[in-house]
Design goal:
Low-confidence stretches: 1-17
Number of helices: 23
Helix content: over 70%
Radius of gyration: 22 Å
Mean pLDDT: 83
Strand content: under 5%
Strand order of the largest sheet: 1-2
Shape: globular
C-alpha cells in the first residue's frame, strides 16, 4: 500500500496558498480516481439489482410456476427482499472490518462476492428442469448478493467522502449515485433490448440469463479499478495515530455510542430507499402487472426518467455544496408528501405522456436524495467508526423498509385492491424523512467528524 504522504502531499500551488494548520491538501487526480472506482463499482452492483427487478415477471415464470401472476410476482419479490434481510449481517461483518483493515480491501471483497452471486443466477436451471431446487438456488445466490451489499454502499460513500475536499463533497459524492443510475440504465436497457428482440419463448428459455452472465466481466473491471487506489487520507491518519495495526472497535461503540446518529441515519435512509426502490425497482412491474401496461413501454419510460436524473444529478450535488444538504433533502421530503398522489394519478391515466410526466416528477424529487445522501450520511459519524456505524444504520433501514418496498406494496394492493398504495407508502416515508432532516446538523463545507479539514489545492 502506498504511504499516506502520497495522498496528502500538497502541490507547489498548494504550498503557496493559505491552508489551515493541520489540513489535508487533497490530490485532484487521486480524488478523481477514487470517485471513478466507487461509482463504477456501484454501477455494477445496481446493474445486477436492476436487472433482477426489471425482469421480475419473467423470473417468476422461470422459478415460481403458478397460474396466478400476482403469486408469481410476490414470490420473485420475496426472493428479492430476502437478500435485504441478510444485509445487516453483511454490514456487521464488513463495516467493522473496514474500520479495522481499511476501506479499499473491504470494497474489493464486496465487489468479488457481488459479481459471483449475480453470475451464479445466470447458471441456475429452471424449475421445469430441477423442481424446487431452482428457487432454492436462486435464494442462495440472492443471499450472497445481499450479504456482500451490506458493506458496499456505506463503504463507497465513506471512500468518496474521505477523499473529497470539504467544499466539494456534495458534488463528488453525487457521482456515486450517478453510477447507480448508470447501472440501472444499463440493466433496464439490456432487458428492454432483449424483450424487444426476443420472442416470449426465447426470453423465457435462455434470454433472461444474458444480463446475469455479464456480471462476471463487469466485476473484474470494478475490482481492478478499486485495487489501483490507495487508502483514504482520513483512514491513513487514523492508522498513524494508532502507530500499529488498528485495534478492533467494539460493536457497543458503533451502536450505543452513536445511537442518535444511527436513528437519524435510519430515518434518512428510509425515505431515500423507499422512494428509490418504489420508482426504480417496483414501478416497471406495477405498470405491467397492475395497470396492464406493455412491458417494453414501461421499461422505456423508466429508462428515460433515469436518463434525466443522471443529467441533473451532478448539478444537484453541486447545489448541496452551495445551499447545504438539509434544504435539498427537506425539499425532496416535502415534494413526495405533496406530489405523490397527483403523480400516481397521472401514471394511472395510462397514456405515454401522463405516465412520463408522473414518473418524471417523482424522479426529479428522488434526485434531492440521490444528490445529497452520499455526502450527508458519512458526515453523521466520526472517522473511527464511520464505516461500521454507517453500515449498520444504513443496512438495517434498507432491510426493514427499502428492499421490502416492492413486496409490501404488492401485498397491500392485493389485500385492499387500492392501486394508490404506492403513493401513500411514499408519503409516509416522507414524513419520517422530514423529521430526520429537521434533527440533523448541516455538514456542507465542514470537515468530517474526527477528520482534519480537507482542502482543494486549486
Amino acid at each position: 500500500m502506498a504511504s499516506a504522504t502520497a495522498v496528502t502531499r500538497p502541490s507547489s500551488a498548494a504550498r503557496t496558498a493559505q491552508v489551515p494548520a493541520g489540513a489535508t491538501v487533497t490530490d485532484p487526480a487521486l480524488v478523481r480516481r477514487a470517485v471513478q472506482a466507487a461509482a463504477v463499482g456501484n454501477a455494477m452492483e445496481w446493474f445486477d439489482f436492476g436487472v433482477y427487478s426489471y425482469i421480475a415477471v419473467t423470473l417468476g415464470k422461470v422459478f415460481f410456476p403458478s397460474g396466478n401472476p400476482t403469486a408469481q410476482l410476490l414470490s420473485t419479490f420475496g426472493a428479492f427482499a430476502a437478500a435485504f434481510l441478510v444485509r445487516p449481517l453483511g454490514g456487521l461483518v464488513f463495516g467493522p472490518l473496514g474500520d479495522r483493515v481499511g476501506r479499499r480491501k473491504v470494497l474489493a471483497l464486496t465487489m468479488i462476492m457481488m459479481a459471483a452471486g449475480t453470475f451464479a443466477i445466470g447458471l441456475i436451471p429452471s424449475y421445469a428442469s430441477i423442481g424446487v431446487g431452482a428457487p432454492l438456488l436462486l435464494l442462495a445466490a440472492r443471499l450472497v448478493q445481499g450479504f456482500s451489499t451490506g458493506g458496499e454502499y456505506a463503504g463507497a460513500t465513506t471512500f468518496i467522502a474521505e477523499y473529497a475536499p470539504d467544499k466539494r463533497r456534495g458534488f463528488l459524492g453525487s457521482w456515486l449515485e450517478f453510477g447507480t443510475l448508470a447501472g440501472y440504465i444499463g440493466g433496464a436497457g439490456l432487458v428492454t433490448l432483449l424483450t424487444a428482440l426476443l420472442s416470449s419463448a426465447d426470453l423465457l428459455s435462455w434470454g433472461w440469463r444474458v444480463p446475469f452472465m455479464i456480471a462476471g466481466p463487469m466485476g473484474l473491471i470494478g475490482l481492478y479499478l478499486r485495487m489501483r487506489l490507495e487508502e483514504t487520507p482520513a483512514f491513513a491518519a487514523e492508522m498513524e495515530k494508532a502507530e500499529t495495526r488498528r485495534p478492533k472497535v467494539p460493536l457497543r461503540e458503533m451502536v450505543t455510542g452513536q445511537w442518535r446518529s444511527l436513528i437519524l441515519c435510519m430515518g434518512l435512509v428510509l425515505v431515500f430507499n423507499v422512494t428509490d426502490y418504489m420508482l426504480l425497482s417496483y414501478m416497471p412491474s406495477y405498470l405491467t402487472s397492475e395497470l396492464r401496461y406493455g412491458e417494453t413501454h414501461g421499461l422505456l419510460v423508466v429508462l428515460g426518467v433515469m436518463a434525466v436524473m443522471m443529467v441533473v444529478q451532478p448539478f444537484a450535488g453541486a447545489l448541496t455544496d452551495r445551499v447545504g444538504r438539509r434544504p435539498v433533502i427537506a425539499a425532496g421530503c416535502a415534494g413526495f408528501l405533496l406530489l405523490s398522489v397527483p403523480a400516481l394519478l397521472l401514471i394511472r391515466q395510462g397514456s405515454l405522456l401522463a405516465v412520463a410526466l408522473g414518473m418524471g416528477a417523482l424522479g426529479l424529487l428522488l434526485v434531492c436524495f440521490t444528490a445529497a445522501m452520499p455526502a450527508a450520511l458519512p458526515a453523521l459519524f466520526p472517522t473511527r467508526v464511520r464505516y461500521g456505524s454507517l453500515s449498520i444504520g444504513f443496512n438495517v433501514s434498507v432491510s426493514l423498509f427499502g428492499g421490502t418496498t416492492p413486496l409490501v406494496v404488492t401485498a397491500l394492493i392485493g389485500a385492499t385492491g387500492n392501486l394508490m398504495m404506492p403513493a401513500y407508502y411514499m408519503m409516509a416515508a416522507a414524513v419520517i424523512g422530514g423529521f430526520a432532516v429537521w434533527r440533523m446538523r448541516e455538514s456542507a463545507g465542514r470537515p468530517l467528524p474526527g477528520s482534519a479539514p480537507a482542502v482543494d489545492p486549486r
